[in-house]
Amino acid sequence: MQRIRVLIADDQALVRDGFGMILSAQEDLDLVGEAADGAEAIRAARELRPDVVLMDVRMPNVDGIEATAAICRDTAARVLVLTTFDLDEYVYDALRAGASGFLLKDMRRAELVDAVRVVAAGESLLAPTVTRRLIADVVTRGRPAVPLDGTRLAALTARETDTLRQVARGLSNAEIARELYVTEHTVKTHVSSLLSKLGLRDRVQAVVLAYETGLVRPGENHS
Known about the structure:
Blueprint: E1 4-9, H1 13-24, E2 29-35, H2 38-48, E3 52-56, H3 64-74, E4 78-83, H4 88-96, E5 101-104, H5 109-120, H6 131-142, H7 150-153, H8 158-168, H9 173-180, H10 184-198, H11 203-212
Parallel strand pairs: 1-2, 1-3, 3-4, 4-5
Helix pairs in contact: 2-3, 3-4, 4-6, 6-11, 8-9, 8-10, 8-11, 9-10
């Protein structure tokens, strides 16, 4: 069994202790380190080489956004942002910095464990009912989409562009397959291809790009 190495970065000791107990109880998860601020998180990620970093946003010295950018740039670790709904704008910045998704701090124990495993496996954590609304709300409040970047998206085929729109809606591969009347395997192929062509790490970055380029706009009718 391949074990998953996890680093927890949060300025609250109780949060670190609680998450640590949950993760350490799993046979396939190893808690390799903790950090109380972003600077410590960056150093620990570089030294310990975790597979997944649980990253708080608001921390002293270096915040979670700056730490996420540094970790995603300098290591192969994947970052899961820890947040509450009143920090939506910070989460959006963290996703742009390279985070693979986010978790609410009041999540259930099983949700935390599953999220770590999903992200460690190379997937992104996109909850349609949360992530799509979060990004749309943030764009609406203060980050309007820039004019459509035809140069960046020109490399996509028409079907890949359609797939990207559905990804931005937060749909799963199975849901996209039903929407576009293709097989799930075909959707996986399209997603992999568009991520490669656009130089993106995962579906989260694809959602952000879709909003930022104007391919998808908050509040528009996707039907």
